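Pair request: fold both.
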Amino acid sequence: MRLVIQGSTISFQQLGHIHQLTSANHHQQFIQIGEHAYTLPNQQEIPRELLAFCLEQQIDISLVDDNHTLRHLGLAVMDMDSTLITIECIDEIADMQGLKPQVAAITESAMRGEIEFAESLRRRVALLQGLDASALQRVIEERLRLTPGAEAWIAACKQHNIKTMLVSGGFDFFADRVKAMLGLDVAKANTLEIVDGKLTGRVLGDIVDAQAKADYLERYRQELGLSQDQVVAIGDGANDLKMMAAAGCGVAYHAKPVVQQQASYALNHVDLEGLVYLFTPLSAHSSSTCH
């Protein structure tokens, strides 16, 4: 196992204190793998005092399985809203109707796992009935932004021949756009029913819920001939838990507490480029060391 620490900034003083709090001996050194990202090999645990210090200092810390590297992974499956992009698309659509607070409250409740996702989606979409479909394009043009670090993460996946899959409980109108923007291999999402240029307040076909996300992951994994251990799943809400459980490891990205508790690793302070460092193999930076 290797310890990976990263933050928006990490000072040498912080790094030195972290080293003192680990079980590492004086001869074991941190290896710098990014501007503010370091790894320490041959670790077995994160001492409680170290966890508390990193939490206080807003530093992400993970104890990563040595098998979980970019060289070993073959498939990365990602949520879209508040993961690959900065917004919740349905909340922004609702804002066009002056209904954002009502819809956002249902979104939050579903992400915390308080309401079944399919039920929450039906309730939210029903509120959009009668909205002009042009509002969808407005959301793309005015509000849809990639999460910082998304391009760096996908570039690293491509460099290591890792297939990329977006699986979203959101809508294909946006998922297809994000797929094109990032050059992803596959995108799966729900389809809003549109009649005469207006949203009907209904979703077409089966809803992409937590189980569907896991099923899409599993089908694509088998199609690629990969083992479960070669798959990473990244998400932020309760709807991502089954997908993450179906993967060899799951990463909670700026996620709800229920997701962080069940994920293999959690990133709360860095952006999506943190995934690159989380899975950087030790040998890639073996020459750069520091105390």
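--- second member of the pair ---
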Amino acid sequence: MLWLKQQLGDQLADMIIVNTGSAAYRRQDGVAIVPLALLGP
């Protein structure tokens, strides 16, 4: 993902990894970690 950010520059809106965890957070490198359960009903 960091490579993709380098290639796209300002065209990349955000970097998100969807997982099955229970907490959403943003890593120090800017990648957001978001549980799948938070994305829908």
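Observation on the second member. The mean pLDDT is 94.
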